[in-house]
Amino acid sequence: MTRLLASALLWLWVLPAAAHHVLGRPSYNLNEDSNTPPSMQLETQIGDYFVNYMVYPAFPRPGESGRINLYVYRRDGGAPYRGRVAFEVRDDSWFSTREERIGEQTADDNVFRQGFVFSQAGDYIITAKFEDRGQPYRIDFPLRVGAPSPVRPLSLAAGVLLSVLAAVSLVQRRRLMRARLRAAREERAA
Amino acid sequence: MTMNTRIPAPRWRHLNLLRWVTLTTVFATLLLLPALHLYQTYVAAHAYDLLSPGEQRFYTFMETLTSPFTSDPARDLDALKGTTWSANIFGLKLSDPLAALSQVAAGQTLYLPFLLSALIPLVLTLILGRFFCGWICPATLLYELNSNFGLWLRRFGIHSGNRRFDRRLKYAVLAAGLLLSAAAGAVLTAGIYPPAILGREAYYAIAQGGLGAGSVFFAATLLFDLLVARRGFCRYLCPGGALYALLGRFRLVRVRRVVENCNDCAKCNAVCEFGLDPLHDRFGQDCTNCTACIAVCPTDAMTFTLRLADVPPQGPGHLGHRYRKARPGGAASRSQEAA
Question: Is there a contact between B209 and A152 if contact means CB atoms under 8 Å apart?
Fold first, then answer.
């Protein structure tokens, strides 16, 4: 009995530490470093690959470190991608051309992990690039850092425009009617 | 048959206010529906804990808004879906006749359930004419506000465009839209039809946090109205307006001038957004029954009538100078009688 127990312990001890796998994919619903679920878990398809994208913590904030986890595996057979994945980031706000390379990662337990620290809140686009058999792959994913204003410039412009139009029509009601009659008179005279 | 010819407009005068309320309600509903849909999606996904703080505030607000009406939003909010292009309102499926026609053109098949959803709007158009444009179209609210804005700019010496084009142009746009839809196998008319565009853009803005190319097209139509022709898109280019005008050519309910009450002040012509000529009884198939002319008439000379055609031109209003001068023994003799 003791020998059996010792064998079992030895067998467990020599097993490599690995992430939980659910249906063949690593499961990170509650991540090892973060007690919140990922802010988004996207699965997409590009060429011969499926790509899983996750961000930790759920709501990354400026000045705090976070991490992107990318899991890339083949559509046929599900073999994980073994090469390198480069990560870039660009600011997704209007009139911004800021773009930066964050790093290049190799797979660790079949997952490409890229850490980040953003100094400013905002909406960003993370681009993951890799190559397979001479074929380049490039995928964009959204990333929100902090709580940027829910009112975007375009929505703000539309809101302001609507408010101005409504205010003019309401406040200047009588004056507008006079202007309308005057315009019609002028048109008739012309 | 004339409705209230003897005691005309006072009853109808308030309809213009009701029309503004209706337009505002439809527009607000167009914004509310995507918000309800988004909230419903969050509820169905049990996603509250996964939402950002801003989205959680939105969730709470929508929960407060809908809780008096439903305890199961994930299921019950299916009762309200869509836009003015095609909608499901408490089980009643309604579609714009242009949507049905474009679908027939694009698919080159008659899909009866969809066609039936356009039946009620079709019948209403046959009775009321182009009323959708005046009373329901969410773009009308913005176009009328834009038109007022153009008038306001005159104060600063900026004159908005008032060019006139051939009104038949919109029929060509409609025909081209349908032909291209048939050729492409896609409903292309929806890409240039303002109410359909606004419905889509509202979804993009609220549910997806952005705007599509349609918003650029719609902004261009506003600028066209402002700089080139007052209400130019609706008058000359709108494919939906063209269809409604065709269907409403022999509408039953139409505005009529009561010549006995008319003083030829021409305010009706001045307020007509579609540039029609109510003063000379020329309403035509473009009249939207918007009632602006009824509301502005100082002598209650505009009213509704039940006829399949406009009243033939009745000449000058009986309270106007021209009529009194033209009468044998005219104004002078009447003033002598009065004395």
Answer: yes
pTM: 0.77
Residue B100, pLDDT > 90, answer yes
- Could you tell me which residues come within 8 angstroms of residue B214 by beta carbon, excluding any fewer than 6 positions away? B191, B197, B200, B201
Confidence of residue A7 (pLDDT cuts 50, 70, 90): confident
pLDDT at A14 over 70: no
CB B23, CB B308: distance < 8 Å: no
Please report residues of B whose CB lies closer than 8 A to that of A41.
none
Is B111 in a helix, a strand, or coil?
A: coil
Q: What are the tens digits of pLDDT across the range A93-128?
A: 777 778 889 999 999 888 999 999 999 888 899 999
Among B52, B155, B270, the residue with its CB nearest the CB of A180 is: B270
User: A44 and A117 share a domain?
Assistant: yes
B200 in a structural domain = yes
Q: Are B162 and B229 in contact (CB under 8 A)?
A: yes
- pLDDT value, residue A23: 45
This model of the complex carries an ipTM of 0.72
The answer to whether the CB atoms of A176 and B267 lie below 8 A apart is no
Range of the domain at A65: 17-145
Cβ separation of B154 and A179 shorter than 8 Å? Answer: yes
**From the candidates B148, B264, B279, B280, which should be mutated to test the interface with A, based on the most A CB atoms within 10 A?**
B148
- Cα–Cα distance list, A23 to A20, A26, A30, A46, A110 (Å): 10, 8, 16, 21, 14
Distance from CA of B99 to the nearest CA of A (A): 27
Contact A87, A68 (CB under 8 A): yes
- One-letter amino acid identity for A12? L
Question: Which pLDDT band holds residue B222 (cuts at 50, 70, 90)?
Answer: very high
pLDDT of res. A150: 62
pLDDT at A161 over 50: yes
- Domain extent at residue B240: 1-27+83-339
pLDDT tens-digit readout, B120-134: 999 999 999 999 999
Given CB atoms, is A186 within the 8 Å cutoff of chain B? no
- The DSSP bridge partners found for residue A84 are A106
Does residue B157 come out as left (phi exceeding 0), alpha (psi in the -120 to 50 range) or beta?
Answer: left
* Total count of domains within chain A: 2
Q: Are residues A93 and A115 in the same domain?
A: yes
Mean pLDDT of A123-146: 91
The per-residue b/e assignment along B20-50, b for 16 or more CB within 10 angstroms, e otherwise, is eebbeebbebbebbbbbbbbbebbeeeeeeb
CB contact under 8 A, B148 and A169: yes
Distance to chain A for B72, nearest Cα, Å: 26
Give the pLDDT score at A122. Answer: 85
Same domain, A133 and A174: no
- Among the listed residues B89, B91, B140, B87, the one whose alpha carbon sits nearest the alpha carbon of residue B118: B87
Q: What's A185's DSSP letter?
A: H
The nearest CA of chain B is from the CA of A126 a distance in Å of 18
Q: For chain B, what is the domain count?
A: 1
pLDDT of residue A25: 47
